[in-house]
Design a protein that fits this description.
Elements lengths: L10 E4 L6 E4 L9 E6 L3 E9 L9 E10 L4 E6 L12 E7 L4 E6 L5 E6 L6 E6 L6 E6 L3 E6 L4 E6 L4 E5 L7 E6 L3 E6 L4 E7 L5 E6 L6 E6 L2 E6 L8 E4 L5 E6 L6 E6 L5 E8 L7 E6 L2 E5 L5 E6 L2 E6 L3
Antiparallel strand pairs: 1-28, 2-3, 3-4, 4-5, 6-7, 7-8, 8-9, 10-11, 11-12, 12-13, 14-15, 15-16, 16-17, 18-19, 19-20, 20-21, 22-23, 23-24, 24-25, 26-27, 27-28
Organism: Melopsittacus undulatus
Protein name: Nucleoporin Nup37
InterPro entries: NUP37 (IPR037626), WD40/YVTN_repeat-like_dom_sf (IPR015943), WD40_repeat_CS (IPR019775), WD40_repeat_dom_sf (IPR036322), WD40_rpt (IPR001680)
Length: 326
């Protein structure tokens, strides 16, 4: 948990495996600590974090592993369920993973004897992203290279199926818009679907390819951000289907875009994992240049803390944490 100045990140956590994906829970879990999950080649590890930025009694950062779940295959994406509670008796941990065998796995645990998982079959190609319904957590949406977005119930039954025109890269479900799904496609189109009528209701265009990642801003549901080519792009959905703002950032290609959970003007992007280092950039819409630049050895994944301007990236047997200004 030491300060790590060599890679200019604030904190690191050592992991037993290469970290392909890392995800803070975006939901209140009833505990002062934040839940974090990370996935490697065989396992998903669920732990808690607490930072000196939120608790003066913490020296730097405290990290504790709650449980390691055997996964048996590489973890490609993780989504947290809003039903996860640490203050319940017994506690409940629930999350879903996407794996390289094109299956989703729903895990439910009380951190003691009850550890269940269900497998959802249906996608015929690589799954790029997944998300739980943010209010009740009774459904999971996923997008895939098979040109579909699918919505599942917790038994693994397919409740909705949207045919896309190219690989689905990102899927988002906003807590203020529980009946809409945002789906971003590699061809540069972002569509919103009405889950009641199961029709597309709005689309946004990047005008460039490949779109690799998009996100729906938690703090302002009219804002959408994405990375395509080497640029970041931002839309205001009330104004135009074309980006309101865009800027070239990563010399190679941009890989991930994530809005901060605490500030509608703060977001992070990562470059494509290079042979050695992955670049992390934190941007503020009020500033022409990135406000923070970091590097992680072969970094992978990107996630923001629920209540702090702090983000994490996975890497080679490590998770790296950066703290930015608001």
């Amino acid at each position: 948990m030491k300060q790590d100045s060599t890679r200019n990140c604030a904190y690191t956590v050592d992991c037993e495996d290469y970290v392909h994906v890392v995800k803070f829970s975006p939901f209140e879990s009833g505990d002062a600590c934040s839940l974090i999950a990370y996935g490697g080649n065989n396992y998903v590890v669920v732990g808690t974090c607490k930072f000196q930025e939120e608790d003066a009694e913490v020296e730097g950062m405290q990290y504790k592993t709650l449980r390691t779940f055997h996964h048996g295959i590489r973890v490609d994406a993780i989504a947290w369920s809003p039903e996860t509670r640490l203050d319940a008796l017994p506690p409940q941990i629930r999350f879903c993973t996407a794996a390289s065998d094109r299956k989703l796995r729903l895990y439910t645990s009380d951190l003691q004897d009850k550890n269940e998982f269900k497998t959802f079959d249906g996608h015929s190609d690589y799954i790029n992203d997944l998300v739980f319904a943010p209010k009740e957590g009774q459904e999971v949406a996923s997008v895939s290279d098979d040109h579909t977005c699918r919505v599942w119930d917790l038994e693994g039954n397919e409740k909705a199926h949207f045919v896309l025109r190219s690989p689905g890269m990102s899927v988002c479900w906003h807590p203020e818009e529980p009946f809409k799904l945002m789906v971003a496609e590699k061809n540069g189109t972002i569509r919103f679907y009405d889950l009641v009528t199961q029709q597309a209701i709005l689309s946004l265009e990047c005008e460039q390819k490949p779109l690799m990642s998009a996100d729906w801003c938690l703090k302002n549901n009219l804002k959408i951000g994405a990375v395509a080519g080497s640029d970041w792009l931002i839309w205001d959905v009330t104004r135009s289907s074309y980006p309101q703002d865009k800027r070239p950032i990563h010399v190679d290609r941009a890989r991930l875009f994530r809005w901060s959970q605490v500030n509608e003007n703060l977001f992070a992007t990562t470059g494509y994992p290079g042979k050695t280092n992955t670049q992390l950039l934190i941007h503020h819409l009020g500033h022409p240049q990135p406000i923070l630049t970091g590097t992680a050895a072969v970094g992978s994944g990107l996630t923001w803390h629920r209540t702090l301007p702090l983000c994490a990236v996975g890497g080679d047997h490590k998770i790296f944490f950066w703290v930015s200004e608001m």
